[in-house]
Amino acid sequence: MSSKLLRGTFIMTLATIISKVLGLFYVIPFYHIVGEEGNALYSFAYIPYTIFISLATAGIPAAVSKFISKYNALEEYAVGRKLFKSGLVVMFCTGTISFLFLYFLAPSLADFIIPDNVDTSVKDVATVIRAVSFALIVVPFMSLIRGFFQGHQSMGPSALSQVIEQIVRIVFVLAGAFIVLYIMKGSLVQAVSVATFAACIGAIGGLGALLWYWYKRKPYLDGLLLNDKGTMDISLKDMYKEIVVYAAPFIFVGLSGSLFQFIDQLTFIRTMAEIGLADQAVSSFAVLNFQTHKLVIIPVSLATAFSLTLVPSITKAFVESDRTSLNYQLNQAFQVLLFLTLPAVVGLSLLAEPIFTLFYDPSELGTEVLRTYAPVAILFAYFLVTAAILQGINEQRYTVLSLLVGLLLKLSLNIPLIKMMETQGAVVATAIGYTAAILINLIVIKTYAKYPFRLVLRRGILIVIFTALMFAGAGITYKLLTLFLTPTTNLQAFIIVVICAAVGAGVYFYLSFKTKLVYFLFGQKVDRLLKKVRLRG
């Protein structure tokens, strides 16, 4: 993997992990401030919001990244700048239209989600959806500027703005909900509305960071224009034709997770009510789409970073017809992703009970759902990365096909599986849908990139063996610890998680260093990192 790709991947990975970890840990105080009903209300608002934000940006920011990377490789810098300026106007229009649609459609959407025999009211759900809709005005601008910087293979601005956005949002969520409920003595709906409005405040913070970067980098970016070849004068009409081709798959990729969750939102509560579980439908939905999802999404952070950094790099290799570089990057991407995500999801599944207790309260349902849901994270990760690869090799049309197949399977199986397995049925339906989508993506990569999977399969078997040995070591430790520690009390759950994680990580990385697998994946950077650690020690 090239040093620039590794550096960009590291920066985006670090920022994404920080952002995801912050997004994970804030749910502990937020859960205790607003409770399960507040969690459910929050997720009722956020799922439609994420769908509308994808529609508002229309995949253009990520497509702009690919477009600018392509023309920068050809040294046609003015083409990308021209597109960027017009894109700001487009983002303002699509953001405003999406805000108006979500705001005024909120009551109808809430009425469709909430059946009559459930305690949560349609009016309450509509209120929190309207509160989050204001973010749609700001986020598209921020996303476009991130895409512009990523197109120049500069990940720092996106990384910093992502972290700032998350910090500002979380502070506003927690402070706002607490003040409304405990100081102003407001209602739960008002508190959750303030918490969802935090998306807008966070976006303003992230946008501010990007504007600062733009001010600092503008002399350099203007300098690139001086080296512009000037052999291409592409009209805005032709630009947007190319952008639309790029953007359509990005819309679906950006929407993928939200669409799977939205199917749950439309079918889960009604199906639970049909089988006589209306009284626990809302709390079960909170466990499924908020509490466990927040935990499961952490291992996916690496895939998110890869999907952002792969597109410009793979596009560059593809445009330059550098097949060796392309295959090498794909090899490393698949292997590193498996190396980092597989042990994480296996460990999360093994320690489901103490981890769920640590973040929320002891819950048999939460433990069962997390144990089933954790392995699905690796499917989320591979879908994001394989979709990014398809976009990089200009076979993005198949991303749409694979996602539609996955969603069709989810939609077809969700209701019958929920009736058979209750909450866990929704998880199984999601896993089946993502598996089908990934298989289609891999077949396309094999066919059109002529990519040989032999090395990945060999190394993958080795990683699976190491993970199995890690699972055995951590599992034995877990059994021994639970002889005298209780995983349903916070302090003891914390001790169990820390010790088991240390044992599991120790086994996994010992084997990785002993067989030199870690060197094959990360190269000499491992030696430099170890040298720094020794010097500091």
Secondary-structure map:
Elements: H1 3-25, H2 27-57, H3 60-73, H4 77-113, H5 122-133, H6 135-151, H7 156-183, H8 188-226, H9 236-274, H10 281-296, H11 301-319, H12 323-350, H13 352-359, H14 364-373, H15 376-392, H16 397-421, H17 423-448, H18 454-481, H19 490-514, H20 517-522, H21 525-536
Helix pairs in contact: 1-7, 1-11, 2-4, 2-5, 2-6, 2-7, 2-8, 2-9, 2-10, 3-4, 3-6, 3-9, 3-11, 4-5, 4-6, 4-9, 5-8, 6-7, 6-8, 7-8, 9-10, 9-15, 9-16, 10-14, 11-12, 11-15, 12-15, 12-18, 13-14, 13-19, 14-17, 15-17, 16-17, 18-19
Subcellular location: Cell membrane
Protein name: Cell division protein
Membrane topology: Multi-pass membrane protein
First-to-last CA distance: 30 Å
Radius of gyration: 23 Å
What level of helicity do the residues show? over 70%
| Uncertain stretches of 5 or more adjacent residues | none
Total beta strand runs: 0
Q: Summarize the main sheet.
A: none
What's the structural domain tally?
1
Compact description:
This protein is an all-alpha fold. It is built from 21 helices and no strands.
Description:
With 537 residues, the protein is mainly alpha-helical. It has one domain (3-525). Helices cover 86% and strands 0% of the residues. It has 21 helices and no strands. The longest helix has 39 residues, at 188-226. The mean pLDDT is 84.
